[in-house]
């Protein structure tokens, strides 16, 4: 997902940056997404702070090798 709002989280989220999202049922039920942020840890953030993007398979493969 791409960060489109970092209000209240400027130290943890960078605008227009692509973030890895982890599955979180509790978060989904509460309008949140679990994101690996700038600290390298995963936290719940408001879903409206992000926009989902579809990546080409070639980009997904490259990112999978980095993570």
What class would the helix/strand composition place it in? alpha+beta
H/E topology pattern: EEHEEEH
The structural domain count equals 1
Characterize the largest beta sheet: strand count, sense, and whether it forms a barrel.
3 strands, antiparallel
Query: How many separate helices?
Result: 2
Q: Evaluate the radius of gyration.
A: 12 Å
Question: Separation of termini?
Answer: 15 Å
Average pLDDT reading: 94
**Numbering strands along the chain, what is their spatial order in the largest sheet?**
2-3-4
Strand % is: 15-25%
Q: Using DSSP, what is the number of strands?
A: 5
Helix content: 10-25%
**Uncertain parts:** none
Using the alpha-carbon principal axes, give the shape.
globular
Give descriptors for this structure.
single chain, 67 residues, alpha+beta, three-stranded antiparallel beta sheet, two-stranded antiparallel ribbon, 22% helix
How would you summarize this macromolecular structure in one to three sentences?
The protein has 67 residues and is of the alpha+beta class. It has one domain.
In words, what does this structure look like?
The protein contains two helices and five strands; from the N terminus they run ββαβββα. β3 (32-36) and β4 form a beta hairpin. The radius of gyration is 12 Å and the shape is globular. It has 67 residues and is an alpha+beta fold.
Could you give the topology of this structure?
Layout: E1 2-3, E2 21-22, H1 25-29, E3 32-36, E4 42-46, E5 50-51, H2 57-66
Antiparallel strand pairs: 1-5, 2-3, 3-4
């Amino acid at each position: 997902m791409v960060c489109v709002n970092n209000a209240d989280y400027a130290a943890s989220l960078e605008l227009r940056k692509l973030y890895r999202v982890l599955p979180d049922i509790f978060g989904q039920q509460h309008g949140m997404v679990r994101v690996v942020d700038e600290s390298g840890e995963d936290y719940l953030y408001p879903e409206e702070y992000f926009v989902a993007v579809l990546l080409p398979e070639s980009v997904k493969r490259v990112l999978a090798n980095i993570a």
